[in-house]
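INPUT
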Amino acid sequence: MRKARFFPKIYIVLSLLFLYAPIFVLIAFSFNESKSRAYFTGFTFKWYKELVQNEAIMSALFNSLLIAFLSSIIATVMGTIAAIGINSLSRRKRGFVMNLTYIPVLNPEIVTGISMMLLFVFFKQLMDLPLGFYSLLISHVTFCLPYPILNVLPKLRQMDPSLYEAALDLGCPPLQSFFKVVVPQILSGIVSGFLMSFTYSLDDFVITYFTSGSGFSMLPVTIYSMVRKKVNPQINALSAIIFLLVLALLIGMNIAEAKKAKKE
Amino acid sequence: MVKKKNAFLAVPYLIWMAIFVLVPLGMVLYFGFTTSEGQFTFENFKSVLKYGDTFFKSIRLSLIATAICLVLAFPLGYIMSRMGEVGQRTMLLLIMLPMWMSFLLRTYGWMTLLENEGLINRFLELFGIGPFSMINTEGAVVLGMVYNYLPFMVLPLHSIMIKIDKSIIEAAEDLGANGFYVLIKVLIPLSLPGIITGITMVFVPSVSTFVISRMLGGGKNVLIGDLIEQQFLGTVYNPQVGSAMAIILMVLILVIMGIINRFDAEEMEGMMV
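OUTPUT
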């Protein structure tokens, strides 16, 4: 029996070591004075300084944040409205629409990427519209759209429809009833749909790679070209910063969730 | 009455999805079956035939990676599901955290570790072993797939395993089942839906990757994803052949997932009897 209790701990430690080894190596070498990825020669912050001064990376970061912000807002608004519509469809029609919704989720990313690229190349030939900001925005909205829908729909199903009708009966105009009665009840679904969209958009590489063209650089594509040139410790500094940001964000979200669970 | 009136709200979404999901997929089909002049042809598929080896290699490596993920994730998911609430919360956080970092950066981390002059070889050198050439091998590509997609296997397994009641396992043990029998007669059948979800979520991105193979496999380990990428963004722009490859990839995934689902359905029936 004692052996049985010992094994799980070792297993968890080994699994976490496997998951975190490459990340910790990246972070450790972000403080390395030389460019070597094998020998630690001395401590420095210079790669962080160079990273912040690297205009290509900073503008790519700005572009990625801009696209993530815009596409997740558009996807959340359109997705929430669509979810209300889908919720009132008959079962058969709803099944059809949900199958459509799952296509971008289940299709391999590379297929989604090249299929949209074909469309945008066609637009380019048709209207002389080069790939760039607009094509990225459209492709990001498209692959984000399922997440608000999948998060809002269950909330709508839990909601009592007679509350909305009661508001209408009491003379509240439809739009106001929607914002005062429906939105508060589905808000948690809207928020998680937005957050998922935002993170997926920020993190996506494959679809971005195929739909970005050459004029508009996004962070993951910039990282990819840096990584392929191999030796550039600024990548390590960037990894360390992203790791800390994600860690802080996840811990914050977890604490908020735990507090909420306690209240309930 | 109010309900039906709302159906029109889905229309803008449907139009969007039709233009930006269905039409592009239709274009893939169209390009796959036509020449650059728009004539119907099977030539594109014929020219894919010479890459048969690459297709087999992609399927082989991603099936190996999926199997390794399943073997590694099953105990992990189970151990996690038996932990207390705080323990589970912490473990979920620790497993999801790497997923939130760009997979390009994490794969780059493995390049640092696996290189001939890399840390693993330097570590082994202390004991007088090696050096081994690990990077640019099939093994490195499989490792990259396992590493990147392991959380996708752990999370569905964990979420289904927390529903398995402790008393069911105890009952099996009381009735004389040893650990092995508890595993194949109780744990695996009860976590089957999680296993299928996990297999899908690991296999699909593995078989269609082009980044992992390029970063960890060097130029020698070309996969389907690399072939497709080369047709669209390589030196020769050939969307016709690229589309044919994408069609074959989608069909392959459907067939393999169909086999896995059917196999599991039969297993389930067997279990029921």
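end of record. The first helix of chain A runs from residue 2 to 29.
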